[in-house]
Amino acid sequence: MRPLFVFLTVLLVTPLGWQTASAQDISRVVSIDRLAQSDPLAALQETDVALRDPRAVGTPPDIRILLDLLQLRAELLEQMGQTLQAADAWASVARTRAFSRAHLRQDPVPAFLKSAALYEQEQALGRARQVTEAAIAAEKETGRDDVALLSLYELLERLANLDRDPKAADMALAAREALTGPTFETQTENPKNGFRIVDVYYATDRARTGQSDPREFYGTQRNTHLELGVAQVTIPETHVAGTVERPSVWRLEFNPSPTKHILLKSVEPVNADAFFGRLQGEFTADPQRDLFVYIHGFNHSFEYAAQRAAQITFDMGNAAVPVLFSWPSRNKTAGYFADAAVVRLSGRRLAVFLEDLVQRSGARTVHVLAHSMGSRALTDALEIMALRRNAKPQDPPVLGQVMFAAPDVDTELFAAMASVFKPLAKRTTLYASSTDWALVSSHKLHGTTPRAGLGGDLLLASSGIDSIDMTAMGEDMLAHNYFSNDSSALADMATLFWQDASPAQRCGLQIRSDSQQPVWDYRTGQCPSNDLISVFSNLQQKNIHQSEDARKLVVELVPDQGRIEVILSLIERILTDPQ
User: Fold this and answer.
1) DSSP string for 493-559
2) Do residues 69 and 23 touch, judged by C-beta distance below 8 A?
3) What digits encode the pLDDT tens for the residues 21-67?
4) Above 90 in pLDDT, residue 370?
5) DSSP state, residue 167
6) What is the pairing mode between strands 466-469 and 509-511?
7) Residue 499: CB atoms within 10 Å
8) Under 8 Å between Cβ of 146 and 182
9) What does the radius of gyration of the chain's CA atoms come to, in whole angstroms?
């Protein structure tokens, strides 16, 4: 079965639905990607077999698995010098990306352009023009500024001239001249305009791509050093907590709008002095705010990581200044081993950056959250910090809350490293789930070695770590983002930011009685989550830690008397926590 036929099958079978890949599916794709490093021909043969195998792509096909296989096939054909076949394959990748854009957030235009370049190389100018026209249509839907469209029309004009079609060349020229301005809405931040702007400070060892578009500013290659900067992310007034709203062709949204979508609006690299000077200004203006570092996981682009950092911060009431640490993930499922290879070096750089934040940011408290494979960078960084400081249990902590969400780290290694770095944090929390497909896949890829982020019977029980099984929250699309997609998880984090409360005092957590070390299960339906996020973020910002002052604030914020009593009872319990 040819890949394009598989793609057409997807269109017919699953026009509006998406399947979740099994752990075995993911393992197979990653294994083929690994084989490609040593034997491209064998990997190509395995890829073609997988594309024909319903057990690999699913029934109906899982769009993420299908796309990863199609892209891997295109890369292998290009690597082996089969240029025309590679051009066909990249065209299939581009069309699949275009079809699944709303779900997978992958831009089809670069794949169309790669296909066009390969067709031109083989003098297949008619095909090159066709995919360039498809790229123009896809570019209009992404809503980027006219610089990108101008470049595409210029390419189309050149190809038409090479193909000796002056009429088509004139039409491309006319289209270029008709472009009048950017499609991105440029009004300044104002709630009346329907959106707000979150400044996300960042440190990254991703290399720049050379593109000016903020969404493409940083790529997947590793840089030789950390680069600091500030990214602006828009949050629409219509934002739903826990989601990253994006344009959807199914809703006939062809241009991104800050009044409807969370968008990476700008990326501004700055030097270290400017970076820390600007950070210090945040805390001079509002000394009660804390600093919150977010370290993204496997299969994330810089753009999506910045959007996530802004979303989590906004959903928790902007009580902390967000700082993103972005390492060079390849941003595709098949790149698991490549991501695993680069994340450890990033951890050493993260250690230096965290020390700088503690010393130079001006924040009274620095909290840290690492997700998935990003936990490998954080565990390495914290262990390095602890060893350099010769940290001991009686030492005052240098960090506030350190939280690991679905950490993709060997369980025994995590426990051993945590015993070294625990003195650095006021409290260390591990959020886990037994339905996390990415960790189950990692479990298989590592020879059934348990991962620290798995819940259920595999939940890590270790002294000094608050391990919480979040399985009861159920699954999101990939069961791997529950920490940011469920407002109850955000409520628990907001509670910790406000008051260093033990799990026994927090809402919705029940101790597991059959464990030698205390571990906790999250119970759904126990907490008025959105109320709690609002209340705790306000309590933190106003530096309120007394019952009477808290009561006054809750009465102002919560209109319903029944909910007021529930929240006040919880606050009283937290404030009387004996720890």
Assistant:
1) HHHHHH----GGGSTTEEE-TT-SS--EEE-TTSS-HHHHHHHHHHHHHTT--SHHHHHHHHHHH--
2) no
3) 444 456 677 778 878 888 889 989 988 888 887 766 666 667 778 88
4) yes
5) H
6) unpaired
7) 17
8) yes
9) 25
d(CA 186, CA 375): 36
Three-class secondary structure of residue 10 per DSSP: helix
Nearest to 139 by CA among 168, 112, 176, 165: 112
* % pLDDT > 90, the chain: 45
Which tokens is 261 given? 């979508």
In terms of Cα–Cα distance, which of 162, 137, 167 is closest to 152? 137
Instruction: Give the integer Cα–Cα distance in Å for 579 and 577.
Output: 5
User: Among 231, 369, 227, which residue's Cα sits nearest to residue 295?
Assistant: 369
Q: pTM of the full predicted structure?
A: 0.75
Largest CA distance in the chain: 82
Q: What confidence tens digit (pLDDT) does each residue in 483-522 have? A: 676 667 888 898 999 999 999 999 999 999 877 788 999 9
CA separation, residue 55 to residues 32, 50, 59, 103, 264 (Å): 15, 8, 8, 22, 37
The DSSP symbol for 80 reads: T
Select from 434, 268, 275, 456 the least CA-distant residue to 353.
275
- Rounded Cα gap, residues 265 and 154, in angstroms: 26
Nearest to 438 by CA among 380, 342, 488, 373: 373
The model's confidence at residue 248, banded by pLDDT at 50, 70 and 90, is: low
* Rounded-to-integer distance, Cα 203 and Cα 205, Å: 7
**CA 81: distance to chain centroid?**
34
Mean pLDDT computed over 343-371:
96
The answer to whether the peptide bond before residue 60 is cis (omega within 30 degrees of 0) is yes
Cβ-proximal residues to 219 (8 Å cutoff; 6+ apart), any chain:
206, 207, 208, 209, 302, 328
Chain position carrying tokens 């004996």: 578
CB 315 within 8 A of CB 485: no
- Contact present, 245 and 234 (Cβ < 8 Å): no
